[in-house]
Write a structure and sequence with these properties.
Elements: H1 2-31, H2 43-68, H3 71-87, H4 93-132
Helix pairs in contact: 1-2, 1-4, 2-3, 2-4, 3-4
Length: 136
Amino acid sequence: MNKSVFIDKLGICLSLCCGIHCLSTTIFVAIGALELFDLAVNEKLEFAMSCGILLIGVAALLPQLIAQRTYGLMALFIGGFILVKTSENMTTLWTQLTLLSLGILAITGAHYFNIKSKRKHAEYIKAVKEAAGYRT
């Protein structure tokens, strides 16, 4: 379980880093200070972050989806990813910032609730084994 919790924690960190990057890039574009931050608008970096978030999210949430039928967590993650990607196409600053913030919160929330679900499931399995007299 520690390895799977680590993947969720990594997903939370990566999604927060992506959120900070995207929010700061959006604000820099809005105030016209983009020349100072050429690294912030690197398409390869944004593509790598998106792929990383997607791969880590699927790797963390798919086993839980299969084992416990946690469809809501996967829907929350996919919805958050769609919000983040939709925010890139918005022209209004406040709409873009709102969609981006909601998307990052949804992705982070999916990982957080996945960790809670894994811990609850592990405690349940341990209690069942103890009640049945199963010794490890």
